[in-house]
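The following record pairs a protein chain with its ligand, copper (II) ion.
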Amino acid sequence: MKRKVIYLSVAILLCIGIIYSCSKNTAPAPATSTANTNAQIQNFAFSPATINIKTGSTVTWTNMDSAPHTVTSLTGAFDSGSIATSGTFKFQFNTPGTYVYHCTIHSMMANATVVVSN
Ligand SMILES: [Cu+2]
């Protein structure tokens, strides 16, 4: 009798396990279409100079320099304003396209790009 109870318990646990793993497999896949991406502003340059992301992704820039910088879209899509040392700027790209940006303080920091695709 005790054995039956043990077998039954094991069977029930197995069923729960199978149902649980099945429900996990059928759950929507983690949002592979979006990802958060980090970029650096270092030595008066944007790194990487070109960022490729999926629509809906957020890019976070961190200023690693002692000088302030900006992350400013040429089309006005985004503008960080002045980012102090160790400061960050985040922007979520919800529209596919190519976004060219620059630093308004340092004219040589030009033509950095975020490419947003579906
Ligand atoms: Cu700058």
